[in-house]
Description:
alpha+beta; five-stranded mixed sheet; two-stranded antiparallel ribbon
Amino acid sequence: MAQEHIELSGGIVTWSTSDRAAGRTINAELIGKQRFFVEVVTDDSRYCLWDGADYDEAIRMAEETRHSLNLEAPVRDTVAGGAS
């Protein structure tokens, strides 16, 4: 059984949509842009809690999330290749 943890990842957006009351819209302004993602990872789930364009802010958000959820495992930073 894996320990619940926070994971920081990043990549270039190839497709993005938003579901709203008025329907699904394409987020064309994000396509082709670098984004970073902060996710909670459990044994059977993965939840994205934050995304943004700034890597330093992503690190801050990942650590803040880890502390607010009282998780012991270090943040897994897949961008930097390990734990932050």
